[in-house]
Design goal:
Low-confidence stretches: 394-400
Distance between the termini: 83 Å
Radius of gyration: 34 Å
Structural class: alpha+beta
Number of domains: 2
Strand order of the largest sheet: 1-2-3-7-6
Order of helices and strands: HHHHHHHHHHEHEEEEHEE
């Protein structure tokens, strides 16, 4: 009975190791069923003694395949991803557990002889639990480290395939190493050194997967940034054309008003005055928001975005100083302004009451630095972690690139930014500071 309880406890710990390792690289698709599935896995693995009816190599192979199948099924059922990903995670977890067990077994044989181990069962029990407990603790620490790093993206299929191809031969090699130690206790130092090396390789595989995911994320961010820059460039060209046309029409309108004034002073005949006035009324003069910061791209973006906000019932107030020397190139400034203002308009648009929709914007230049600050009210609280907004949208990989692009442009210009949220007033604030260029 004691051996059965020990076996169930070890199986439970190994199941938790696999679970937390999978949780480090994948998202749960059935979170409410996770603990029930883990319990089912433990019960299924409790049937391991049935494989004792086959002796030797056949029984060992069947037992190994059975364990790998159960764990792979658990990962595939609970977590997002393909069967290849589930197999790779399970093989990596099995290799990791086996390496730790082999390492502690080598230490045990270096300290105690086989006869001493058999004479003191307490020692055997301690060394049976110690590696699994330590392994679980290290995996949980790795999971915590991974969970605190935002914008995770899992490795591609090539990465999972490489991990699988690395894990399978290493897994069987470490088992061969353990058997060698069992039949030849004098090989303790050799097994210890090889186990240490394999442990470093195994832990390195964890971080290799993390690095692969980070590279995938970085590549996608760069692609999105290039696409964003291309779209914003096309957008600003279109906006420039419309802005130029509006300015020209405004200039013509002023000239026409000057003509009307002169006609009134000269007391021209009423029929002539009325005919000219009627011709003016037939011209479609668009409403123009006149903004002049001496930085054309800022004038254009604001002239385009402020009316959009007004149409949605948003109170948009701004204070823009002379921005002639604002230390950011035009293409980057367009990306920053359009993304920040669009985000603010989107957030305000979700507020039911129009009286609560507000955007405040300020840009100014000082001797040593330039400041950009945008505040907006929100309908729901905003979660900020590591100076980035945690999106509430379902497809987290498809969203969030707006602020990433803004951050990239600010950092490229040598500046820094800060995001904060005032929960009491439901106000989100983005502040950026950029060093002024010196002669």
């Amino acid at each position: 009975m004691g051996d059965l309880a020990l076996s169930l406890m070890l199986i439970s710990l190994e199941a938790l190791i696999t679970f937390f390792l999978a949780l480090s690289f994948a998202s749960l698709k059935r979170p409410k069923q996770a603990w029930w599935v883990l319990l089912l896995v433990v019960l299924l693995l409790a049937l391991e003694p049935l494989f004792n009816i086959w002796d030797g190599v056949v029984g060992s192979i069947l037992h190994t395949l059975y364990v790998l199948l159960i764990y792979t099924s658990m990962v595939h059922f609970l977590f997002e991803g393909s069967i290849l990903k589930a197999m790779s995670i399970e093989m990596l977890a099995a290799l990791y557990t086996s390496v730790i067990e082999a390492l502690f077994t080598a230490i045990l044989f270096l300290i105690y002889s086989l006869e001493e181990q058999q004479a003191h069962e307490v020692i055997s029990y301690c060394f049976a639990f110690m590696p699994t407990l330590i392994g679980l603790g290290l995996v949980i620490l790795f999971y915590r480290w991974r969970s605190r790093r935002p914008f995770q993206r899992e490795p591609d299929m090539t990465g999972w395939m490489l991990i699988l191809l690395f894990s399978i031969p290493s897994y069987f090699e470490i088992h061969h190493l353990a058997l060698t130690l069992w039949y030849d206790p004098n090989a303790g130092w050799l097994c210890f050194i090889l186990s240490i090396l394999l442990m470093f390789v195994c832990v390195g595989a964890f971080f290799l997967l993390d690095y692969s995911g980070r590279r995938q994320e970085a590549d996608r961010e760069n692609t999105a940034l290039r696409q964003n820059l291309k779209l914003e460039t096309a957008h600003i060209e279109s906006m420039t054309s419309r802005y130029t046309q509006q300015r020209a029409q405004t200039h013509d309108f002023k000239n026409q008003l000057a003509v009307l004034r002169d006609m009134a002073r000269r007391n021209v005949p009423q029929a002539e005055f009325s005919a000219y006035l009627d011709s003016m009324l037939e011209i479609d003069i668009p409403s123009v928001l006149y903004i002049n910061t001496h930085r054309t791209v800022v004038d254009i973006v604001m002239s385009e975005k402020v009316p959009v906000a007004k149409e949605k019932g948003i109170d948009f107030q701004f204070q823009l100083d002379d921005l002639t020397d604002f230390p950011m190139p035009d293409d980057a400034l367009v990306v920053v302004l359009t993304n920040l203002i669009d985000n603010a308009i989107e957030a305000c648009g979700k507020i039911p009451q129009a009286a609560d929709r507000h955007i405040w914007m300020r840009m100014k230049e000082e001797k040593r630095s330039a400041l950009m600050c945008i505040d907006n009210t929100t309908a729901e609280p905003v979660v900020i972690r590591d100076n980035m907004v945690q999106t509430t949208k379902e497809d987290t990989l498809a969203h969030g690139y707006g602020l990433k692009n803004v951050a990239a442009m600010i950092e490229r210009s040598g500046g820094m930014y800060f995001i904060e949220y005032d929960a009491a007033n439901k106000k989100f604030r983005f502040t950026a500071s950029l060093p002024m260029k010196t002669e």
